[in-house]
Amino acid sequence: MAKLYSNELRAVVFPNNFQESAAGVLKENCLTVQHFDYQCEHKRNESGEVYGATEPVILKFTIRVNSPHHAKVFYQRLMLSGHYEYSLLFNVTYDANQRLSDYEDGMIVDGYVVGVEERYTSQTGNAGSDKQMLLDIEMLVRSTMYLGREEQNNYKNVFIH
After folding, report:
1. CA-based, 20 to 30 A from 118: which of 46, 130, 134, 146?
2. Total Cβ atoms within 10 A of residue 94
3. CA–CA gap between residue 134 and residue 120 (Å, rounded)
4. Burial of 128 (0-12, 13-18, 19+ CB in 10 A)
5. Are the CB atoms for 103 and 87 separated by under 8 Å?
6. Residue 90 in contact with residue 61, Cβ under 8 Å?
7. Are residues 64 and 36 in contact, defined by beta-carbon separation less than 8 angstroms?
8. In the chain, how long is the greatest CA-to-CA distance?
């Protein structure tokens, strides 16, 4: 059983499938991921083929919320009990219009929000005290699609689960 952490990478979450967004993804709609992890395990036979029922996968991530409006989407999806897609993108860059222009790696996760927990922190900087809200999100994952580069500017989609 492998545990994956994003402690070294800059990551954002967009609460939809970013590939289906015709108008582009605005920076203001991407929430900064502070931490994420999930466990994914498949049973394989001696030939390496997957067999048996897939174990449930729980994805946990913590995001920094700029305003309560940004947290609203997660609470709504928690109450509706439906499955939705989320895009987790790593090392993103934005163009001059503050739209997503490039990313290094990413995942599109389809799943159910099963838990939301709020935390408030306060940091003191040059401008004084700065309060921020953190959300801990737990999702029951239905499927995950990995988006990674094979070579420069060529992306490879791999369906994981």
Report:
1. 146
2. 15
3. 6
4. exposed
5. no
6. no
7. no
8. 61
Q: What is the pTM of this model?
A: 0.74
How far is it, in rounded angstroms, from Cα 130 to Cα 86?
A: 28
Contact between residue 35 and residue 8 where contact means Cβ atoms under 8 Å apart: no
Report how far residue 20's alpha carbon sits from residue 149's, in angstroms, rounded to the nearest whole number.
19
For the chain, report the end-to-end CA distance as a whole number of angstroms.
14
Residues in the chain: 161
Which band of pLDDT confidence, cut at 50, 70 and 90, is reported for residue 86? very high
What is the Cα–Cα distance from 75 to 46, expressed in whole angstroms? 44
Token pair of 87, please?
Answer: 């895009």
The answer to whether the beta carbons of residues 32 and 64 sit under 8 Å apart is: yes
76 closest CA partner among 15, 12, 13, 14? 15
DSSP secondary structure code for residue 126 in this structure: T
Residues 77 and 113: beta-carbon distance below 8 Å: yes
Residue 74's nearest CA partner among 25, 150, 133, 27 is: 133
